[in-house]
Amino acid sequence: MAGHSKWANIKHRKGRQDEKRQKVFSKLIRELTVAAKLGGPEPGDNPRLRLALDKALGANMPKDTIERAIARGSGDQEAENLEETVYEGYGPNGVAIIVETLTDNKNRTVAEVRHAFSKYGGSLGTDGSVAYLFTKVGQIVVENTDEEKIFDVSVSNGADEVEQGDEDNLIISVEAEEFHNLKNVIEENGIKINQYELIMKASNSVELDDEASEKVINLLESLEDLDDVQNVHSNAEFSEGSFA
Questions:
Q1: What class has domain 83-132+204-243?
Q2: What would the DSSP string read from start to end of 41-88?
Q3: Where in the chain is the domain with CATH 3.30.70.980?
Q4: Domain with CATH 1.10.10.200 in the chain
Q5: Measuring CA to CA, how many Å separate 121 from each of 206, 214, 239?
């Protein structure tokens, strides 16, 4: 359908990250703490912590704040008991949604998530109701300065797909296990990275017109605003008009 693109989805996510700095910091601190708790405090030995650290530095988080979060997770300081919980559901027009949370109170979190779904025309589903539609992959958005070089470097180092973003960007997809290696190779080849993250990529998508896009975006933003929510993924393909 004309007027739809994966770049629209990326712009939605990035816009939300840029919009509320303090909330972003809070979520990043939680991720740093849990990543250090699960995989240890050394970024070189802990890919999840390395990604969280990169995001924190990219958001201009103060160094001492980062160090305190890692110290809490690695046991050097008292840390809150955070659990990872994933919720699944459907939004307007049958859009599949996955909500990743870190919480110290699952009863509170599920109530808030369920309320957001209900308020914006969606419904919270059961475990496994939409997860089968998604696969965790690495996504790297690079500046399109030399398309042939970028394609050759990416594909020869494990990339599964290189797609056009907007006119200035290419979107590279890679298996989660190869994500950090490919990112490093891309940087070593002097290719500018504009954005990178691990996402849940849908095997099929739901294309939305302007009206439906607005409804789904309202739901996704409501979920993203919840304190316990770390990431929200969907199989929506938003219309370009919804970002005008």
A1: alpha beta
A2: S-GGG-HHHHHHHHHHHHTT--HHHHHHHHHHHTTSS-----EEEEEE
A3: 83-132+204-243, 133-202
A4: 6-73
A5: 16, 12, 19
- pLDDT confidence of 206, banded at 50, 70, 90? very high
Q: 241 or 149: whose pLDDT is higher?
A: 149
Hey, what CATH topology would domain 133-202 get?
Alpha-Beta Plaits (3.30.70)
Output the pTM of the full model: 0.80
Residue 151 near residue 189 (C-beta atoms within 8 A): no
- Angstrom distance (rounded) from CA 13 to CA 100: 14
Q: What is the CATH number of domain 6-73?
A: 1.10.10.200
Tell me if 241 sits within 8 A of 210, measured CB to CB: yes
Edge-to-edge order in the sheet of strand 96-103: 123-124, 83-90, 96-103, 229-234
What are the pLDDT digits (tens) for 73-119?
888 655 568 889 999 999 999 999 999 999 989 999 999 999 999 99
Query: What is the C-alpha to C-alpha distance for residues 175 and 169, in angstroms, rounded to an integer?
Result: 20
